[in-house]
Amino acid sequence: MTLRRTPPARLGLGLGALLLVAGTAATPMSGAAAAAAPELAARASACATPADFDGDGVDDVAVGDPFADDDKGSVYVVSGQKVVPVAVPGLARGDGFGWSARLAKVDGDACADLLVGAPYADVDGEQDAGAVYVVYGGGTRPPLRLTAPQPQRLAHFGWSLAVRDDLLAVSAPYEDDGQLTDAGAVYVRKGAGQFRRISQESDDVRGNSEVGDQFGWSMAWGPKNALLVGVPYENDDGAGRQVEAGKINSGSAVFIDDVFTSKITSLKLDSPSDRNGDRYGYAVAYSEGSGYAISSPGSGSVQLLNPARKVVRTVTQGGRQAFGFALAASADGRLAIGAPYGGGVRVVSWKDAAEDRKLTDADGLFGWSVAFSGNKLFVGQPDARPAGKVAVAGRNAEALETLQPPEGAEFGAAVSG
Predict the structure, then answer these.
(1) CB under 8 Å to 326, separation ≥6 — which residues?
(2) pLDDT digits (tens, 9 = 90+) for 185-240
(3) What DSSP character marks residue 149?
(4) CA dist list (Å): 245 to 236, 239, 242, 270, 275
(5) Other residues' Cβ atoms within 10 Å of the Cβ of residue 360
(6) How much is the pTM?
């Protein structure tokens, strides 16, 4: 089992990076071993807010550390000032558990549930095929392990997650499409239904699967069953299928109107600057009633689109800072933009162009991950000593609070509210 970090040149910024580069296979875990904490079951009925996982009556935040515990990976729930590890049985060295994490009410009870990607997990003998774990809030049910219907070697199923209520999208951006290496695919399901596989080879999905596109690198649910999919390593090479032609890694984003309908309709947007290395679609986000956001960290810009998918504003930031490396949208129409190579985090608004706040830290990868929870913004800095940290910014607070785990490796590699 190998857990690899993508070479520093992956984002094309010349900086040291931590970038890592259709029935449902579902395995329930042992109930005795799977309880995240014994007291959770007693608190299940006390879950009082949409993001309350542990039943203490306040919103929680999930934080991933995929290199903790001898590279098995770890996930923590942050509740107030408490940083509590969530235990899942059966993890193996190199799984990368915590690479992605999301909180959502999957099963419809009072508690939020935790979904965690382990994209380097071996599955049925297939190296690094990847898996996703569903950890049910309140501790009343054992975790569930989800895998691709046909696990593929090095596909990294679980790389990115998009979750809203019982809608789940899981990406496998390194999955081959036939003979097309690393073309990428996404898997979607509703409730406990079967996974549906979608790629750019699917009927009426705009674009063509090509070598290295990595369709599904990022994802965000839109209204109803609409899904926005980032394809940052696609080349703008004209019609048809080409390899290493046109604008290399300029990127694209694909809007799929309804991922569950029998006949898909979609819209594809290419990089607005159409330059080599833009990585348009590297991160995407959606805020209901406000619209979408699509980043191009190679060129340092983020597009804000309205719900009709028309560009209303482009936010830019100079310097080779990977501006747009991470995005998070709030329910009230704010957008947090991470630029972890010295650019900090900016908070802008779809509704008020004058709202523009910048958060910075002295050094390190501050802004690697971002998430809103209530009126607070959580910012991951996984390279902070000794084991990574998450900074917490109140909406009007001047100072940042800092959260760190009792032990770990790169706490803050993923955050989700």
Answers:
(1) 283, 336, 337, 338, 340, 367, 368, 369, 370
(2) 999 999 999 999 999 999 999 998 989 999 999 999 999 999 999 999 998 766 65
(3) S
(4) 8, 11, 6, 15, 12
(5) 14
(6) 0.90
